[in-house]
Amino acid sequence: MNFFRLLRKATQPGDRWLMALSALLLIGYAGFGAGQRGTLVTIHRDNQPLNRLALAEDSSLLVAGRLGSVTVEVKGGRARLLEYDSPRMIGTRTGWIEKAGEIAVCVPCGILIQIQGEEANPTSSKLNSHGLDGIAR
Amino acid sequence: MRGPSRQKRRNLVGSILLGALLYAAFFTGGQGLQNKKRTTTRLLMGTLVSITTWGVEEEQERQGVAAAFAEMARIDALMSRHQPQSPVAQINAAPVGSPFSVSPELVGLLREAWKIQTLSQGAFDPGLGQLIERWGFSGDKPPTLPPTKAAMATWLATFQPGEGIVLEEGSAGEESRIYLTNPATGLDLGGIAKGYAIDRAIFKLKEFGITNALVNAGGDLRGIGHKGEAPWRVGIQHPREKARLVAESQWPNRPDTDVAMVTSGDYERFFIHDNKRYHHILDPKSGYPAQTGLLSVSVQANSATEADGWSTAFFVLGEKQSRKLLPKLTGVEVLFVRQDGSHWKSVNFLGKWLGKP
Q: Lower CB count within 10 Å: N or C terminus of chain B?
């Protein structure tokens, strides 16, 4: 007797719904737990916490960096850095970040933003969505 | 009698299946809490530094990681060419021939640099500070033009590879002193100091009883221990496409694992001028960016100091010379990514090639 026939005989319809729901929850945990959406973005200047913005509310904040102003923009549950004067514009080129642990940084400005939330797998780079612990470069 | 018994059996099997599912859900969640992986990130040494720990109590982790970051900041203050008060900056600022007292720690790192310089026959050189200044790779703004031919000719005519830095060893109880003898020489430990800072961070973490950790300073890493049932997994970035990997390295899943990996490539700091790529890894013999047919070199070693120094040296030496040298270096493994996208890795290099770039 195959597994599904045994399952059908051994359970009531209500049981099967409950099992399907549990299975979906498990799949959800395994598939999306590694990159859960955050709830806050924290802003650091020279490694000191400066401010925090809720991702639930669209907003923007002008921060004085070492090389000039940097804007932290929150929109649609995501955040990004916009630099006005940075040699490589790496923070700006990082684009939107939204998952817990993701980081955008302007090293010469000394400004770092990080998404906070339940971190199943904290990441500093979008490449880390492979579930890696670090990227050599 | 038959009906109720069958029903009971069905209910029993159903209950077991439900129980197994609920247990699996509970167990998966519970494991995440007990064996938590934590990552803390700071801006240090002009780059993003992150320390990841596994299975450590929160307070122990907080203290150990703070001590490790403080140690890295201390090394930066000691070795940086850009911090005016650092001994290295002061040696460079002093007139030629003026001795400057230095700590045994700085002497020790300079000796490490000289060792790699000797073994690599000058491919690695801690005296390139003046050359790096001419190229402008260490400034806040990246350069857009190479130095003039006249500036390079002057430097080449004056610089003497392997000379120009003099160490006067202090006898017992006395400080050692360093001075420069050549105006074209500038002390620069940038090719080795970041690795040393990583090693010191690991040392500090161990002092706090943290035995499962990964320190990542701008892509240069050292990992100790493991993550319980899983090993540390590190990707190696594609030299031309930031969003891709060329290799994935899984480190042994053991408590005594200790692996350092540092990559040098022509893609981190560079500019394009007249359709030519000028990168920051300079060949001490020509004064120009090393052109040896490589895009990147990843080195694994017992310490990040060694891995840091050898990744630069191998990039400058090129694959052929480096492979000749490799058997003489204990515990040093390498992955070369060539300009045509092919690769070569030493037998014991921990990593799986993911495909041609």
A: N
**pLDDT tens, per residue, chain A with 137 residues:** 566 676 677 777 777 776 776 666 555 554 444 457 888 999 998 888 888 888 988 888 888 888 778 889 999 999 999 887 777 778 888 899 999 888 998 888 889 999 988 654 444 455 555 678 999 98
| The pLDDT value given to residue B255 | 94
From A120's Cα to the closest Cα of chain B, the distance in A is: 8
Judged by CB atoms closer than 8 Å, whether chains meet at A120 and B220 is answered as no
Q: What is the mean pLDDT of chain B?
A: 90
What are the C-alpha distances in Å from B193 to residues B34, B88, B106?
36, 11, 10
Which phi and psi angles does B186 have, rounded to 5°?
-140, 130
| Interchain CB contacts (distance < 8 Å): A and B | 132
Whether residues A121 and B37 touch (CB distance < 8 A) is answered with yes
Q: Is the predicted pLDDT of residue B227 greater than 80, yes or no?
A: yes
A49 touches chain B (CB under 8 A): no
**How much is the ipTM here?**
0.82
How far apart CA B270 and CA B266 sit, in angstroms, is 7
Of B10, B220, B298, the CB nearest to A10: B10
| Torsion B171-B177-B180-B185 (CA) sign | positive
Q: How far apart are CA B296 and CA B288, in angstroms?
A: 17
The pLDDT score that the predictor gives to residue A26 is 55
For chain B, domains (ranges, CATH) are 37-79+190-353 (3.10.520.10), 87-180 (1.10.3980.10)
A131 touches chain B (CB under 8 A): yes
Contact of A95 with chain B, judged by CB distance below 8 Å, is answered with no
Q: Which residues 132-191 of B are in CB contact (within 8 Å) with A?
A: 140-142
Residue B267 phi/psi, 5° resolution? -120, -10
As beta bridge partners, residue A68 has A65
- Taking only residues 214 to 253 of chain B, the set having a beta carbon closer than 8 angstroms to any beta carbon of chain A reads 214, 216, 218-221, 223, 227, 232-237, 242-245, 248-249
